Structure formats: C-alpha cells, structure tokens
Amino acid sequence: MLPVEKYFIGCYQDVHFWNDQKYDWNFGIPEDWKDKPWCYVINSKCRFPEFYLKLMSDEKELIDTAILHLDNAISRSRVKGNPFIFRGVFNLDWLENSNVGGIFEEKGFGSFSLDISRSYQYTDSENPIIFQLELDDEMEALYIDGSEREVLRPRNVTYEIVDVVLEKIYFSKSISRMTIVYKIKEIKGHDKNRGLFLTIFKIF
Questions:
Q1: Per-residue pLDDT tens digits for 87-103
Q2: In sequence order, what E strands does 35-187 have?
Q3: Smaller CB count within 10 Å for the chain: N or C?
C-alpha cells in the first residue's frame, strides 16, 4: 500500500494518535461525527450530490483526492478465507424493502467488522440489527483496523437481502443477545437501471 493511501485511510478512521483529522471545514460537522469528520465528509459527498455544493474548491479537491486513494487501495485488496463480516444498523428507516429479495445500493464506503461484537455499538441496544456478508476471494475488501477488526468495502456496491433471521448471538458461554440478522450478498454486474436503489446513512 502506498504511503498516501495509508494516510487517507488513517484520516477516514476514528481518531487515533497517529492519524490526521481535519476540523476546519467550511461547514458544521454533526456532533455524533466529531471524531470522524473525514468519514462524514467523504461518505456524504458519495451519497448526496447536493452535499458537494457545500465544499469550498480546496475542500472539493482534497475530498476527491481522498476518494481516489481509498478507491485504489480497496481495489487491490482482498480478505482471504471467505470470512463473514458484520455491520451494525441503527434502524431500517432508509430501507424501503427490508424483506428477502430487497435490493439496495451503498454509494459510500462500507465499513464492516470481522468481529460481530464490535458492530453492536452502532445498533439500537433495544433492537439490535446486524448485516452479515460472506466475502469470497474475489470481493474487494480492505482490512484497515486491528482495534475494531474493521474491513472497508468499495463504494457503489449493490446488495441483495437473501435471508432475515432472529438469532441468539453468544459473546461468551453466559452472555448472549437476541439479534435480527440480515444476510446479504453482493450483486455483481447488476443492471443499475432496474430495481430500487437506496442509500445507507446511519449505519456502521
């Protein structure tokens, strides 16, 4: 991985002692994204075309550069062993069809974790919802963070809901939680002129 790619991946993540967060944007950052302003700005630009109009010319150039290097790093990366990765979902308000067969497109970068327990911090504690995706050796996925075992997936990916189950997830022999698990798969080569596409917003 190139040094410039490592730099922008570090910016995209939460605040760590070694990465470089930018706080002097030309607009306000929502309070719940104060620790991840790069992540908020990058994904807002990807998901909402009108957001780009808020950026100053130097900010546009900076974000376009960050997206380019994230794209490049992810495109060359794979996670071997066909693991499951998980993404906590706070609610399903953004999803018009949450039944099996429902299709949605993630326009921003998709943050998952190899550790299902890490995903719970992004769910409703009273009604936890987890998305589960099985990777194969051909799917683009970049392992970026040991603390949360975070895996970053490319933007503009289309997914289909293949199953919805209520499962008891065990964290230890004595600790478990009932969880709604949405099992999803990537649709490769999907015709984007067909079907319904929605943008994920408030998820991990």
A1: 999 999 888 899 999 99
A2: 84-89, 103-106, 110-113, 129-134, 142-145, 150-153, 157-170, 176-186
A3: N
